[in-house]
Design the sequence.
């Protein structure tokens, strides 16, 4: 058993009493019926070596973790023009989100809150169709993951559209401020589809490997984004990746990360590896309860932290 | 000339056209009359070696940078009890600060906004006097800096007290919520005194060296705080160290940092060094305009970033 | 010339220098091209006698004044059940409106802000169609006005729908909180149609006569609403009828009133008469600049005020 | 028994089951120990005739009702200059109060919220002392009440000062925006003293009689304020007299009124009378529970309403 395998086993033992706790997202049936006892974790190192455990190969709804990939894609296409339409600051509570959106005249605080990701969707749409745009996003992730089997869960999409009034409110709000260029329903279709992509812990960790390696896929050698851009995406994940618990995640785990309401978390250890973890029960902040604990334990045991000294 | 000296020279050349720009803080005379053309930078490495340039030995008013030291001291004394009275999340705009303080019933978002630092002052006061508490803070910094000449600028204190209505409002507000235990004027005296401490870039960088070295002063070997705590202070600096420009600083510079309205910035490069920079002109967010540019340039040229990969 | 005619002439002379000032609403073409020099005023007393002047017979877009009629209609149909879904308090600034809507979980502050009127539209819709509901609203106003020629301006409706992103945001927001029961687009169609009703000053004043007469049409003797309900509608107009200038209108004019962005204002003098005034240029609060001045002058000269003593 | 006596008896019977309910203000001992079963009501008509019942002659802490008198006094002294420093709009919830104070740069929304009354205290202070100013306020009320026995309850003052952190926060906040001219502690002393004035229902009603009579004391014939100013004070009471329940009070009672946390309410029936009512238990909005019900019943039975028609 490798050291890492041992640490992962120890992590599983540490979080075992908490498995099944937390509240599974229940705003749509497809999420509500996920088994709350699921737990998987995968670590992919710079050689592409996968160490995993539990349900690390089960696909789940990545939800907001998709925002890391769409941010990367929009930066590839439009570069710094993004920052005229989206900020780079943490957003505070959900309550503050909409207050700030009003106060800041339709400019979302960062690309990892829903409003910001909706602007990113709008930019990715360009003048195109939602279907083509969603295909492009999926293909981009497949390329990153070296896995052609990534797909959108259409049942989740249908439910998201049906219940997505708050996101529709945000989109209309920003359109009213002139910060969306495409028809609201097209933009929302792109947004809901990207949130409905299903991936496993292993796929997630593999697809974000470039963020641990200066923007270059360390296995293939392909430069996905510049080193500077990779650092900056990591910085945004650290500042803004966990909604109003971003500061707490930085404090406890000390790694750039992005969570999704499906119970997944992606975490980057620069120069070393990427971690994907999944457990569906959420804490009060809407982040995976067990996933956060597992990362906290893993980071402490491994010594992985961007703040190490 | 060492590599570092060369990079510092290059940095000075890069920011030279901007020296004297920005707006010097003018809410009190002692700050308003500081020469806007001042610029100093100092790097102290883990052996204690100092590389500096410009006005790096001039003392200036450290203002909010003092919050790093009082946070460290209160954690030494009270540990995690702090987090019952202060949060760990970024605060958004100054406007949002007070909204959030109201919404969150007198619990400030983090120890680096004024309200949070005032709670820290209250905890350091204990049941003691302001004078004794200020002495303790000064002595703590002197110990960290290995320099017994750190002092409080009494002219600045007098002006701060005279004009500090907003901080008095915050303190009374929190007292109304039961989140201050000592008399408001005593707490404010401690707070204003700590902000009025004068230090140079060299002293600043030296005194925070433990944050780059896992909580241990790497020169003397003295463990100031645990490794875990040092990481966490760095995490807080990264998330919350630059008010509502914290996300932007993380994005541009990629290092834990803390700025003060006197024009100073402290930045930590874990495992490597600490940087103190000073230039009085402020940008729109109230952070040193030239200091921020210098750190951005220095980080890019040196490759220093916690997000490097 | 009657006393009232003399006062109206004097009022016209007083406001004459201001005619054409203010900013005509320009968010849709049909409003933007209205002649800014228009000014009309009509007073209808309890015998139904009309005294008018200027462009008092020109139809204009009544916009938010329609909220008085839909509130009356919804109270006739659903009574106090309305108050479970809409409040009765002034809303503060537009900025505060959305903050409060978030803070109060989708319950709008009162039926005269857009969000509140959208809930009223939803209740009027019941399970029916927008077209039938709009016909019912129009017929209700025709009955009140004793004039079968009231109609919806379809060009205005089309423009409202095309540009109404902010109202769409509000509607989706409230739907997300469960405070709308019908499909958002149906509700918005009803809302935009009622805002697009065109009426003249004379028609407006005549149709609200019941509010000056204890809920009974004083000409026909028909009881439209109970006396208590009429008083309460007047109370709401006084508290909330002019957005964030409601307090100022109560202070200056001292009468229950409701303004619309088309430049119309309806004002009720209990026990005496109803006034309709129209001039398209708006003041900074979005209320008719000349219309407000005219009412202030007319109230002062006539001694009409609910606060008279 | 007169008609009015009969209506008051009927009102007492109607509210009897509720006497003793509600929550007595308990933030200071002097208020907390008031007998919750107290209930008094007094009506003073334009001839000065007093009709009263219950504990109508017991003095109680008038608290915020004092704001009506200080507003009147400051208008007498400074006229419209007041409106450069205080607004005339309702304030929404307590939460919104401080948000708005921040958003509107230290200008309180109206003279009946604490922040607004503190600015009024500052203007009354001029360059004088708190003691003299408080004497002037007391004498002004004594003149209005035709009763030289009005006094400040010094025990209440002492408690208010001791616990008044929130008001101290507001005062410092406004001082920081330049909207207070005198030292904060002096201003607060005036403010806390005026709140601590003790008066009975009869005294209250008598002292506000000028507001029912066009600004003239109808008994003595003395013109206290102009007719226009009296109307405007009434308008402000109607719009803003009950904090965030002002709209509801206008809706239910339909009269200009001002409540205090001591359980008193003052209500004006223009051209007819003034009502003072007192019962210490408060409803969720901080207004007298039984007092509000009594006024609602009295207004319904008597037909008194400014919106009558």
Sequence:
């Amino acid at each position: 058993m490798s050291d890492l395998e041992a640490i992962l086993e120890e992590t599983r033992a540490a979080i075992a009493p908490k498995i099944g706790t937390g509240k599974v997202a229940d705003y749509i049936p497809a999420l509500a019926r996920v088994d709350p006892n699921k737990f998987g974790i995968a670590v992919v190192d710079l050689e592409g070596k996968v160490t995993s455990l539990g349900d690390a190969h089960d696909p789940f709804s990545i939800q907001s973790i998709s925002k890391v990939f769409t941010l990367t894609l929009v930066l590839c296409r439009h570069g710094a023009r993004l920052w005229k339409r989206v900020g780079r600051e943490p957003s505070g509570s959900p309550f503050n989100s909409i207050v700030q959106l009003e106060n800041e005249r339709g400019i979302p605080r960062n690309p990892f809150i829903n409003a910001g990701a909706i602007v990113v969707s709008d930019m990715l749409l360009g003048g195109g169709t939602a279907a083509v745009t969603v295909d492009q996003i999926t293909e981009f992730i497949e390329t990153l993951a070296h896995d052609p089997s990534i797909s959108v869960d259409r049942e989740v999409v249908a439910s998201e559209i049906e219940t997505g009034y708050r996101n529709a409110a945000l989109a209309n709000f920003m359109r009213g401020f002139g910060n969306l260029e495409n028809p609201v329903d097209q933009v929302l279709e792109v947004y809901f589809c990207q949130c409905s992509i299903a991936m496993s812990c292993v796929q997630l960790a593999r697809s974000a490997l470039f963020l641990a390696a200066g923007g270059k896929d360390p296995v293939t050698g392909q430069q996905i984004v510049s080193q500077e851009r990779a650092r900056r995406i990591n910085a945004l994940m650290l500042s803004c990746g966990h909604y109003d618990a971003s500061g707490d995640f930085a404090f406890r785990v000390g790694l750039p990360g992005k969570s999704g309401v499906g119970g997944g978390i992606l975490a980057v250890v620069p120069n070393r590896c990427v971690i994907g973890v999944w457990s569906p029960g959420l804490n009060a902040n809407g982040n995976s309860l067990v996933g956060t604990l597992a990362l906290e334990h893993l980071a402490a045991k491994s010594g992985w932290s961007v703040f190490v000294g």
